[in-house]
Write a structure and sequence with these properties.
37% of the residues lie in helices and 9% in strands. It has 196 residues and is mostly helical. It has 3 domains: 93 residues, no CATH class; 55 residues, no CATH class; 30 residues, no CATH class. The radius of gyration is 25 Å and the shape is elongated.
Length: 196
Amino acid sequence: MGGAGHPRALYERQRTGKVRLVECSLLETVIGFSSWTSPQWLADHEELTRQGSRHRQNAPYQRMQTKDGGAAGEAIWARFANALGRAEWCEDPRFSTNQQRMANLEVLEAAGVPCGPVYDYAQMFADPQVRHRGLVQYASDPELGEVPHIRTPIRIGEGVRVRAVAPRLGQHNAEIFGRLGLSEAEMEGLRATGIL
């Protein structure tokens, strides 16, 4: 995507005439959407329990079984095979179960059909493309050392990157309240009463 795809790049082009390359890959965007779970894996390298279609923070937010069994699984496969005029695929031992169909991904890859594996977090962050794109960046912390972060999936040159860890509770109080006109004595009074 060229420089016309992001407001910052648009403003810069308008102001300076300079065009910037704006990149936003599907891979990086999908990993960016894992912003609740990826940082947990990056911190402790413990694989999270798979939740299927459930959401870790919202409920109910998942696929639900219906009285008639729902539409997923074998019923969709049978409709797919029939729609392509290949009803015999339903009886083919290579495709008779979902597990066997998944085992034959190489056939689809060789034919140029978009498909891919379902990674766990270790596999995802070890993927050569994820490493090449520099999606995981590190910011220094005096107590924690180098802390891994996922950078934004939108790249505008090398300017967008993780620069610092999240601030500690109250870390910027003096700076913020100072800008609001509070004196150090007034802030000390707020600290004494437990407000700060």
